[in-house]
Amino acid sequence: MESGKESQTKEPILLMQGITKVYPNGLVANSEVTLEVHKGEIHALVGENGAGKTTLMKILFGLEKHDAGDIFVKGKRASIASPSQAIRYGIGMVHQHFMLAPSLTVAENIVLGEEPTKGVWFDQRKAEEICAELGDKYRLKVDPHAKIADVAVGVKQRVEILKALMRGSDILVLDEPTAVLTPQETVELFVALRALREGGHTIIFISHKLSEVKEISDRVTVMRSGRVVGTEDTHKVTVQQLSKMMVGRDVELGLSRPGVSPANGREVRLLVQGLTYIRDSKEVLKDVSLKVRSGEILGIAGIEGNGQAELVEVLTGLSRCDRGTIEICGQDATQKKPGEIRELGLSHIPQDRMTFGVAAGASVAENLISTRYKKPPIANGVLLNLKGIFEVCASLINRFEIKASGPEQPVNTLSGGNIQKVVVAREFSTDPRVIIANQPTRGIDIGASESIHRYLVDATEKGAAVLLVSADLSEVMGLSNRLLVMYEGRVVAHFDNAEAVSEEELGLYMLGVKRQDPHEIAASMMGEAG
Amino acid sequence: MSIDKKFELLRTAAAIAVALFIGFVVTCIVSKSPFEAFSYFLRGPFTTTRRFAAFLEAAIPLMFTGLSLSLVFAAGQFNLGADGQFFIGAVAATAAGIYLNLPPVIHTLVCLLVGMAAGAIGGFIPGLLKAKWNASELVASLMLNYVFLKLGMYLITYHMRDQSVGALVSLPLKKTCWLPQLVPNTRIHAGVFVALAATLFCYYYLYRTSRGYEIRMTGQNIDFARYSGIPVLSVILSVQVLAGAVAGLGGAVEMLGIYRRFQWLASPGYGFDGVIVSILAKNKPTLVPVTALFLAYLRVGADVMAMYSDVSAEMVAIIQAVIILLVTAEAFLSSYRHRMLLKEVRQSAITS
Predict the structure, then answer these.
(1) A-chain residues within 8 Å CB-CB of B8?
(2) pTM for the complete prediction?
(3) Does position B62 have pLDDT exceeding 70, yes or no?
């Protein structure tokens, strides 16, 4: 459905052949990978998280060293040991996490490293001219004078793309570019990418969202556990076929939310009123109120960085709020420590599992017992019960299908999905009354995501109250019973029935274009019980 | 992963081999008869019973400071206060040994407890500063080493000094507090048993108790510990108090086992040697006796070499420095490990 030109007629501009990469922890990230990209095409590189896409691109951009294999750019063998060499070969990369200086303007960021000068001085006007010219030429509109700190995520991404183009890149790598964008911003990005293709640029588009791949790409290469499964012309394969190639089996697309009985009358498990939190003299949470009842999932949608992470920190006791109250199961939990809050029956799946979720160098067992290491059967009085620990952990590994050689295996030798399962097993096996799940399936494979969603729904149906924060719109929309949208630290919308909301409408609230009346929000969410 | 254990062993062995080689090169440069000198160094501790005994007794204080540092390192705290704690423990035990009138055994036990208490206070101060105000325990403990050294010297000089002796020494310890000698004509004393008991205690405490679990998790990842509900501040404080007590006990044992009067004019430096012992033992209490013996062997060997050849005992400092450098340098031999890994990956790819 994209360009009708047949791929055979095009010459390969990039060939990566037999690439193998083994990480120091023994992980084989790439094994004999071959990728061929034609000039002037949008080539999608798809695969689950951990399939090796990002590693392959890091090798291409000189950020990682490969152990075997060759790279050819424009027919010539290339040795790329650093990003600056990659740039010399005309390769540009737009990372998942933007690498921009927030205190500088858009124009200054774009020319950074290749600043135009007037004598010995930086030529601000010239920089802004270059920036505007580039923006016009590639139809990527940016305001050269705006400070990076003040612009939206979509704009930052455009700046990154312009930065790469300014350095003469004709092969552009975009690593999961749509993960951080709203539906509206994604549409704009695709317009720009098509324009670049018309201008003769080659684009490698990394993603695991197959509908987008189908929409934007000419050809697609699928990776699974470090290997290439195949390369196809995109218009010849269906989304179903692609997902089967990716996962290696048929997948059920779509999520099922927990069935709820009428909310009224069910016990309120988490009640938050007027929460305000100031960090670095900035109000990152402003007067946030919410209520979660037993047996329901309340989803929080929003572009990352709009206060969701801080809300979770405050609710779980990792940070202290400045105003407002938190009640868990009717008991005051404001200003309490994490241990005290856990005693009230709260479980927490943290956003960053390697920082908070696990002690990476410790064993699976040591990570599984961290919230119950004082209670039988893990410990009797002051002594640990090694037999009890082994039995509990072996049964958890079994029940939560953690792929580990046993309780003694160090956590950092497991895959991302299995590490998250360790976190989930620990947090879900203590019969939690309230679960706070922050990005529970970020960066893990589809199989593990499916199980985690199932555990979440099961726990809810057994009566837990769940607060689900996710930047993945399909996840938060598919699982939640009710939805909140956060924008700049405030709750700007509440939907009593998550099924009735469209992605586009949610996007407008996430971007701050629309917002509901605060009284209406309070009435629809807090009011029902008085 | 077994490959990691194998590799760690190999790395430590390689570090020791390289260090000995560099030590030999230095010996060749400074000595007229390097082979003879170096053979005194390597064989020294085994040449006479007396030297062998010196080797064993030198390991005792190293075990205590090594254990003490293993505890704080396991909690991820870089407290280097063991030196001052050891010193002040010895001073406190000296005071109890001079002034208390108690029956044998009980007197010894009381002196050991007093030494432990003094060391515990030495650990409490940086621990409290860290827990309350997030003051760097490294800086606080290093500075406190001087405070305890000077405080100890003040107490000995102005309150416990034996005026009848020309040198600066304390009054004699009462016989009732001495640690009994184990082997006649040597200074090997019952402190060995105290050290072994301390080793077992530290192992059980770290690996078999809930508090030990808290300590290890705090050391592994303090954010994870906090998130899990572990009271990290109280863990940090208590582990430093306990480590101080172990170092203080070491000072007391050394005083009651080897000396009859307090006669140090400066710190004997066991606290810093304990860092080497603990790092070589990878903070594992059960390995501390082994690495303490190894370090004691180097020390006694160097002394013997200095006595019989033209190479001074300081040569051993070079060997120690190289070992520490190579053992702690993460990248040392890492390319070899990567090759081992690649081989294993290829093999498993063939077999699967």
Answers:
(1) none
(2) 0.82
(3) yes
